[in-house]
Amino acid sequence: MTPANANIPNLVLDIQRSVRDALAEDVGDGDITAQLIPADRQARARVITREECVFCGVTWVNEVFRQLDPALNVIWHVEDGQRVAANSTLFELQGNARTILTGERCALNFVQTLSGTATTAATYAALTSGTQIKILDTRKTIPGLRTAQKYAVLCGGCENHRIGLYDAFLIKENHIAAAGGIHNAVQQAHQIKPGALVEVEVESLEELQQALDAGADVIMLDEFTDEMTAQALKLAKGRAKIEISGSVNEARLQQLANLEVDYISSGSLTKHLRAIDLSLRLYSE
Questions:
Q1: Residue among 44, 66, 83, 172 flagged as catalytic
Q2: How far apart are CA 165 and CA 125, in angstroms?
Q3: pLDDT of residue 233
């Protein structure tokens, strides 16, 4: 179900929860329009994409119809991470007509959102192809779909930053001020959760040196110029990984691809996505 590099805690449970919540908000106490159809009417349906995309959403679609009616059959023509052409058939549905129409919008909402995320990620990944740079997502995700979008990012060929506030330290300006400086913040982090990755965001070369001396694993350069970045790479070589963040878009990414940084993180992967245009057509058996 997941790409080889997926390591997302609670993904399966989150899929079940997000589908349950989506159905609850859409169906409520019953789909009254579906009641226009005879209860025993059987049908088939085909879902196509109207535009080229990188597909993501197999398990979400399966879970929508599993929760509505386990007897309904989902026939897949694509898999997660696959690039598909416009007007391609993604999957077919076979079973109760009411169930198909009741689950249609929830299923397509997941697919259009996750495929949009995966497609954006694929565009970013292509811009750094052939380099050592890894493109990372952020926590700027749609509420309730954190793990889903993080999975979609992997399907698009980028990688995950921390999943949440619990699995890695990211020490920013306000943390530094409240903790009494970079050295204190890094040392406390090592004591609080030994072995966890410790990353520090810095705004100057002076702060970079402090983070290196404190033993940070990764240093995030916030709004550094290319010249400052080149200096930072020399200072950090062999001591810490370097990540670039801030105002990263496609044009900027093409410029950054020439720098020998380790990571580039961008909230655009998950918050500036454009949903993929999909269509479902029902026909009677």
A1: 172
A2: 25
A3: 95
105 assigned to active site: yes
pLDDT > 70: what percent of the chain?
A: 98
Catalytic status, residue 17:
no
Which stretches of the chain score pLDDT less than 70? Answer: 1-6, 285
Q: Which of 66, 105, 139, 252 is catalytic?
A: 105
Catalytic residue among 44, 83, 139, 140: 140
Tell me the angle at which helices 205-214 and 226-236 cross, rounded to the nearest 10 degrees: 20
Does the annotation mark 172 as catalytic? yes
pTM > 0.85: yes
